[in-house]
Specification:
The structure holds two protein chains of two kinds.
Chain A: E1 5-7, E2 10-13, E3 19-24, E4 31-38, E5 42-50, E6 53-57, E7 64-68, E8 74-78, E9 87-94, E10 102-103, E11 107-111
Parallel strand pairs in A: 2-11
Antiparallel strand pairs in A: 1-3, 3-8, 4-5, 4-9, 5-6, 7-8, 9-10, 9-11
Chain B: E1 4-7, E2 10-14, E3 19-25, E4 31-37, E5 44-49, E6 55-58, E7 61-65, E8 71-76, E9 85-92, E10 101-103, E11 107-112
Parallel strand pairs in B: 2-11
Antiparallel strand pairs in B: 1-3, 3-8, 4-5, 4-9, 6-7, 7-8, 9-10, 9-11
């Protein structure tokens, strides 16, 4: 069974631009969560989606948004990029709220 | 702010020694999960604890969930170089299914031969 797929793997953007990251969960998984990982802040929770509905949202500004499609694939969008948005963005899928999460390899975003 | 705290942040261990990393929450958790992230990799699920006082073992790893469901620990015996990585705990904040799921900052483990 294929794992969680995140695209692209690497991305370089300039300040002020916007970016869309994609996550394809494991087949059959309906829950997708997004995390931002930086060396100093660890894993910071961004959003959690289940069946196209946002179930939870972390403490990030409105520039960070996401959505989930009917096939459970999810996208995350960051508008008006700032240097501080440089990070590894990880997506995780699971079968539900209390089951193990499977992480993708992540998208390494660099804002210059 | 961070509601799930992990200590220590760094752990240098001599190969063969034991060590413990702790996870503490300011609120009651419905469950807690532990993940391991190798350098350059992504977090990989290790275990989930749900019941108060639960203890689970995986070979040299022992996981505990506190009686109050606010803290957890991971104890590794006879550390090996393959144990290198960052260990994260992650807890569901409330007893509702969709309470916020929060990761601790992780314990980075370095093993010296």
């Amino acid at each position: 069974k294929a794992g969680v797929t995140q695209t692209p793997r690497y991305l370089i953007k300039t300040r002020g631009q916007q970016v869309t990251l994609s996550c394809s969960p494991i087949s059959g998984h309906r829950s997708v969560s997004w995390y931002q990982q930086t060396p100093g802040q660890g894993l910071q929770f961004l959003f959690e989606y289940f069946s196209e509905t946002q179930r939870n949202k972390g403490n990030f500004p409105g520039r960070f948004s996401g959505r989930q499609f009917s096939n459970s694939r999810s996208e995350m969008n960051v508008s008006t990029l700032e240097l501080g948005d440089s990070a590894l963005y990880l997506c995780a899928s699971s079968g539900g709220s209390n089951t193990e999460a499977f992480f993708g390899q992540g998208t390494r975003l660099t804002v210059v | 702010g961070q509601q799930v705290m992990q200590i220590p942040q760094y752990q240098h261990v001599q190969e063969g020694e034991d060590f413990t990393t702790y996870c503490n929450s300011s609120t009651t958790l419905s469950n807690i999960q532990w993940y391991k992230q190798r350098p350059g990799g992504h977090p990989v699920f290790l275990i989930q604890l749900v019941k108060s006082g639960e203890v689970k073992k995986q070979k040299r790893l022992t996981f505990q969930f506190g009686e109050a469901k606010k803290n957890s620990s991971l104890h590794i015996t006879a550390t090996q170089t393959t144990d290198v990585g960052t260990y994260f705990c992650a807890g569901r904040m409330t007893t509702d299914s969709w309470g916020k799921f929060q990761f601790g900052a992780g314990t980075q483990v370095v093993v010296t031969p």
